[in-house]
Every structure is written in structure tokens, then in C-alpha cells.
Amino acid sequence: MSKFLAIAVLVGTTAIAGCTQGINPTDTDRALIGAGVGATVASVGGTNVVKGAAIGGAAGALCNDFRLCQ
Questions:
Q1: What is the DSSP track for 14-33?
Q2: DSSP secondary structure string, the chain?
Q3: Distances in Å between the alpha carbon of 6 and those of 37, 38, 56, 67?
Q4: pLDDT single digits (tens) 14-29
Q5: Which of 7, 27, 30, 41 has the fewest C-beta atoms under 10 angstroms from its C-beta?
Q6: How many other C-beta atoms can be found within 10 angstroms of the C-beta atom of residue 52?
Q7: Distance (Å, rounded) from C-alpha 47 to C-alpha 62?
Q8: Are 63 and 17 within 8 A, CB to CB?
């Protein structure tokens, strides 16, 4: 996966996970949203969808810990 695509997955995941503020999501919710965003970005970019989902899922689950989606 190229660096640009990895950064796009992380930024997209953080942005989407941040949009869930009104529903008080859990880490699992954010991870699922992140995995979906990561897989979609990877699919559109023509790269490995599993890697994209893994990166997105990790970013979604951890964005709250790094205070990026509060």
C-alpha cells in the first residue's frame, strides 16, 4: 500500500469515526467504521483490501485513545 493511500485511510477513518459523536460509539463501533472506510479506500485505490481494512480498523479503534475523534 502506498504511503498516500495509507494516509488517506487514516484521515478518512478518523474523520468518519469523529462523525459518530452523537451516538457515543464504542471502540468496536469505531473499528468497524474504520475497517469499512479502509477497505473502500483500498478497493478504489486498487490495492489490497484486507490491508486497508486492517489499517482502517486499527485507526478507528485507536482514534479515541489519541484524542483525534472526541
A1: HHHHHTTGGG---HHHHHHH
A2: --HHHHHHHHHHHHHHHHTTGGG---HHHHHHHHHHHHHHHHHHHTS-HHHHHHHHHHHHHHTTTTTS--
A3: 11, 9, 9, 20
A4: 676 666 666 777 888 8
A5: 7
A6: 27
A7: 23
A8: yes
Residues comprising the chain, all counted:
70
**Angle 9-56-20 from CA coordinates, rounded to 5°:** 95
In this structure, the number of other CB atoms found within 10 A of the CB of residue 1 comes to 17
Nearest 5°: CA angle at 51, between 46 and 55?
Answer: 115
C-alpha cell at 30: 469505531
pTM of the model: 0.69
